[in-house]
Amino acid sequence: MKKILIVGAGGIGQHLFDRLKSQGFHGWMTTQRDRQVFKRSWLKTKKPDAVFVAISTPDWDKGRAAEYYILSCVEAGIPVITCEKGALAYHADVLKPHLGKIGFSATVGGGTRMLKYVQGKHLANRQVKISAVINGTLNFIFSQMSCGTTLDESCRQAIQLGYAEPGADDPISLINGELRDVLMKTCVFFNTVLATDEIITPDYFGKFELTTDDLESLNQVGKDYRLIVSFSNHPKPQVSQTFGEEFSLHSHDGWHITGGFRQISHTPQLYSWLPGGVGNAVNIVDGELGSGGEYTLSGPGAGREPTTSAMLADLAELCP
Asked: How far apart are CA 51 and CA 76, in angstroms?
């Protein structure tokens, strides 16, 4: 019987624990993010076959706790699987040399495992445009609005269904929490599957959030917008019209990274790959005008089950 240790006893951690237990694993859980609760000596005394890091990323932490847990496992030679975004968003300079020992597919894309998919395309030295929906919660909210639901109702449904980030209790806190999540996932995406010599952090982009006035305006037009992040190394990348502010960065590696609410009615090519509901998706256009082909991957995004499934797939790869 394999032994596992789970750091985090929230919704994801508990669901993961139940899934593993049903498969015959024997496990332990830590109930707090405090580093003093997690003792490195456990890795020697308990000798787990794998460790899961299933904690959230509060703004004040910036992934430091998860970085500590991940490095502790790497140094002990124990496979570690994480769904936490802050460590690879803020500390990829430290963790990137160890990516082969870390299961990280659950950090971006929910159950799609899009990072593994994009990584397998080896795109760093090819001219491509990558567009992605990487936040299932926002996609759910604006998909619901396209069906006639109000912004308030859509946000309330997202909270009730467990799609929202911890602490969200109204539309403004929910959406701004998810926008912060988008920045972290954008950095994880770039740092793990596109970057060569460079890594980026959310601090490179500054704040990306809505005001109450923005929210009122978005309530009127939101059914025609979706939050999309794009990565392009074309010399002159084209971006569709956005609502409000967007975030943007030209990397030293030659990538142009942008993100914002894109108007879908003015961008008909989105209809061929844009996911519905709580889905996530990535669309890759390879070569000039797609001469190298177009590829799309989509699947379930936010939620306990998609995240847990991605983490279990990582476990199967790291501990065959």
From this structure: 11
